[in-house]
Amino acid sequence: MGRDEWTRHRRYDRLPHTDLLRARYVRRTFPPHAHDGYVFGAVTGGVGEVGLPEGTGRAGGGSVVVTNPEVPHTARAGAPGGWAHATLYPASDTVAAIAAETTALRGTAGFSEAVVHDPYAARLITGVHRAAEQGDAPAADILLRVAATRLLRRHGGSLPTRTVRTAGVRNAARAREILLERMTDPPTLERLAAELGTGPFPLLRAFRERHGMPPHAWLTDARVRRARRLLEEGMAPAGAAAAVGFADQPHPGRHFSRIVGVPPGAYQRERARTYKTGRGRPV
C-alpha cells in the first residue's frame, strides 16, 4: 500500500474472541468475502462503500458498518480522499451471549442494514480500541459489551430461519463441503456438478443464491480465512499458502492481500504485536 494507506491488525489478550483493526484506504478495493463472526466498523474519516447482494451502503462520519457472520460483502472508498475506520470483529458466540443477556431477541441476532448512523455507537467502538491500546482490560470489555448491546437494541433483530429443501440448495451445501474437504485440489465446476448429478449452470446459480458468490470466489475466501488461522498459529507464510492450496498459483500472497489488506507476512507480524494487559503500547 502507498503511504496514504495503512492497516493495523491487533488482538487483545483480555478480549480473546474479538479482533481489532484500524485502517485507512484510498485506492484499495476488497472483493466479495465473508467473516466467521460479526463486523462492527466505526468510520473515523472519509466515506466508505459496502456492497451486499441487496445493494450498496455508504458510510461516513458517525456511521457504523455492521455485517453478519458468513454474509459476503465488498468494500471500497466512497470518496476521493478514501476512508478510515476502527473495526471490531467479535465472534458469533460472543455476540450471541451479549444478546441473550441484554436484549429480548430470540434465535440468531443480526442486522438487516449494513450501514447505520449511530455516532454514540461509533464512539464506543473507538473507545474499545483506545482502552486496548492503553492496556485497560476492564474498560475494553465493558465498552465492547455496551457497544454490542446498543447496536443490537437499536439496529438489530432476530434473523429469519429458512429451511429450504430444494435440490439446488442441497447441491449448493454439498458443493461447499466438497470444496472445503478438497481445498488443496478442488474439482472444476464441471466435475463438481457431475459428482452431484446436476449441470454446471444450475449448480453455479444455486451456489450463488445460497452463498452470495460463485464457487471459485467462495473458495478463495475460504482459503484466505484458513490461511489467517494458520498464520496466527505461527505457521510460516509459505507453509500456510501450501496448506490451503495457494502454493501452485502465481503470486499466492496476492489473493491474501486483496481480501485482508496486507500480505501474509505483514499480517503475521502485525498480529504478533498483541496488546498486553497492563501495558500502554502493543508488544
Give the SSE order as H and E letters. EEEEEEEEEHEEHHEHHHHHHH
Label the overall shape.
globular
**Residue ranges: pLDDT <50 for 5 or more in a row?**
278-283
Name the average pLDDT.
Answer: 91
Helix percent reads: 40-55%
Helical element count?
Answer: 10
The strand order across the widest sheet is 1-2-9-4-7-11
User: In whole angstroms, how far apart are the ends?
Assistant: 23 Å
The gyration radius over C-alpha positions equals: 19 Å
- How many DSSP-defined strands? 12
**Biggest beta sheet summary:** 6 strands, antiparallel
Report the sheet-strand fraction: 15-25%
Q: Please identify the structural class as seen in this structure.
A: alpha+beta
Structure in words:
The protein is an alpha+beta fold. The protein is 44% helix and 24% strand. β5 and β6 form a beta hairpin.
Write the layout of secondary structure elements.
Blueprint: E1 6-12, E2 15-25, E3 29-33, E4 39-46, E5 48-52, E6 55-59, E7 63-67, E8 73-77, E9 83-90, H1 92-102, E10 109-111, E11 115-117, H2 119-133, H3 137-155, E12 156-158, H4 167-181, H5 189-196, H6 200-211, H7 215-232, H8 237-244, H9 252-260, H10 264-272
Antiparallel strand pairs: 1-2, 2-9, 3-8, 4-7, 4-9, 5-6, 5-8, 7-11, 10-12
Helix pairs in contact: 1-3, 2-3, 4-6, 7-8, 7-9, 7-10
